[in-house]
Write a structure and sequence with these properties.
With 277 residues, this protein is of the alpha+beta class. It is 53% helix and 24% strand. The chain has 3 domains: 63 residues, no CATH class; 108 residues, Tetrahydropterin Synthase, Chain A, CATH 3.30.479; 32 residues. A hairpin with a 7-residue loop joins strand 9 and strand 10. Helix 3 crosses helix 5 and helix 6 crosses helix 7. The longest helix has 55 residues. Pfam families: Band_7. It comes from Okeania hirsuta. This is Prohibitin family protein.
């Protein structure tokens, strides 16, 4: 005869064992380093400090622990828009490194829930407002030339704003700044005009220096001629005539012609050469 009691006992034992495992898993909770938890019992949030890393015992089935990563989070925000002091449209891309404060996790859970919601509902909107404040203090071009000043204002504003929600800003970085196509074109045209003006100024300075050099050379030559003339004058008029002759002479001796009918043409250069031989 088949004994049906053994399978039933085995089934009951298996169920009890499974229930015990579930109870243990639901009773004991381990939070890893960098994690914190907010406990809810029957849907009600437990006030006070959140649960920190380590082993915790909770009531099974009626308790729930909302885990949060309390390490530094990096969030890159694209498409921040604002108007500059001279009413030009500016678009920016920034990086915000932030950390949720464990003491504020209860309020964060009640207000926005998860960490993803912290980004969307806290970090991004406050970054947008902080960028508007920073951009309004500078002209569009100064957003590039005075980048440090822009980020200093941005940092001060976003730190103050996020601190109200229990979020600590660790660091920020301005990745990129862009302008409207019209303004970018005007900046490019201005740079080209400045380059042309600089080149024209350089050419003018170079011409002025060359002209001054020519004047100085002319003055020097005139002074040398004056001193030489005074020297020759002091030595007599013959030396002056000789100097003028030598300056105009091409280095060739003249041809000599006789005055009779039988014309005689003498080449003085050849005569001088024969005498030398």
């Amino acid at each position: 005869m088949l004994n049906v009691e053994n399978p039933i006992k085995i089934g009951i034992a298996a169920l009890l064992g499974l229930f015990g495992i579930v109870m243990l898993r639901s009773t004991f909770l381990i939070l890893q380093p960098g994690e914190a938890g907010v406990l809810q019992v029957l849907g009600s949030v437990r006030e006070g400090e959140p649960m920190r890393e380590g082993l915790h015992i909770i009531l099974p089935f009626v308790s729930k622990v909302n885990k949060y990563d309390i390490r530094v989070q990096k969030h890159q925000i694209n498409g921040l828009t604002a108007a500059s002091k001279d009413l030009q449209d500016i678009t920016a891309e920034v990086v915000v490194n932030y950390q949720v404060q464990p003491s504020e996790l209860v309020n964060i859970l009640r207000d926005v829930g998860t960490l993803d919601n912290v980004k969307e509902k806290y970090v991004e909107p406050q970054a947008q407002e902080a960028f508007k404040i920073a951009s309004a203090k500078l002209k569009a071009e100064e957003s590039v030339t005075k980048r440090e000043e822009l980020m200093e204002t941005f940092n001060g504003s976003i730190i103050e704003r996020l601190q109200k929600f229990g979020i600590r800003v660790v660091a920020t970085a301005l990745v990129d700044v862009d302008f409207s196509p019209e303004f970018s074109k005007s900046v490019e045209e201005k740079q080209i005009a400045e380059q042309k003006a600089q080149k024209a100024k350089y050419i003018a300075q170079e011409a002025e220096q060359e002209a001054q050099a020519m004047i100085n050379r002319a003055k020097g030559k005139a002074e040398a001629n004056r001193l030489e003339a005074e020297s020759l004058k002091a030595q007599g008029s013959e030396l002056v005539i000789q100097k003028l002759f030598l300056e105009s002479w091409d280095g060739k001796l003249p041809l000599v012609m006789s005055g009779n009918e039988d014309t005689l043409l003498l080449d003085m250069n050849k005569l001088v050469d024969s005498d030398k031989r």
